[in-house]
Predict the 3D structure of the following.
Amino acid sequence: MPVITPKAHTNSQSLRGPAQPQPPPPPSKPPSAPPAAVPREDGFESAPARPLVALSPPIAAMKIEEVERGSPLSIDGPIGYLSAISEKGPVGRNPWNSSEYISGSHATNWRAYSEYLTLFGGPLSGLGPLGSMGPLTKEAWAALPEELRPGGSMAVTGPSGILGALGMLGVLGPVGATGYKADADGNFRDTAGKVVRTVETPNGVEDLCEDYTERGALKNKKLGSRYGVDATIGAEADEFPINSDRKHDELITLCATQKRFPSPGREGGTDILQLEVVDKNGQVVAQRAVDGGPTWMQLRVPAGSDLKVRIKALNANSDDPAPYRLCVVGTGSHSKEVNGGTALYAPGEPKTPQRIA
């Protein structure tokens, strides 16, 4: 037989006698004090850590990775603020950048000469870096250390990364051999002034790799999966589209490199840049933040994916904006060869964007 709990009597006070005084409620917990600034050996104070902005939709909490100064992928390394990929290198809009004289404001359109060179084994021919004898082949993959292969701990510096033949320093970029002249926003244009996004080579049609200004990138809603952006970020996040190759699953490497000199006045000495990759449904599919070096990641992406990359500066604000350079490099039709002759997705495997490094 079930036990039935009787209801409380409506005149409970008359049964229990006079009401007894209740003890006072426990004191409320005082609000915690904000974290104090941390003194540094150099006499400066590091700003207290701030909580990360909540993500929508929520994903697992992200840990900021720390990189030691002087290590290969630190801000002093080959993808840092003084490296070839920075504005101190060949690509930029300064008098010392060779891109200014190859495709920039001091250049002329030399597309016809580029085609002539290709006929005689030039950089865009089958004998060049995009051909069967270049670094984008399975034979080259076999000779690479594991760290430089796709998914490796230093893949950003390997053939599939931002320093490779498909990036801004390669034959398809501002210091490359296409012969196209770039406008003020970074778009390549032909002799008729028409914007061009691809170039025909003996190896097939290749997407170009542009170096955009922030304004130029924001105006272009059809950015592909090979480009760079010179931008500045404060409290607001920056966001740029990534439209992957329409025909091929590809590897996409992203890297946000700080532009300014590390300063002891900023937490950790460097700007902390966070990268997020968002799919067309607004779902964050990958994220990373690095303290002490550029933030990079590598993903495998199904053909025809429409993504966005979101950049945040975790220790910058509107009064102290952080200049940076974003590099996006997709492997396109070279993906299988760059991956050692192996398809990026196994047969029957669900094809979704996935971070692999």
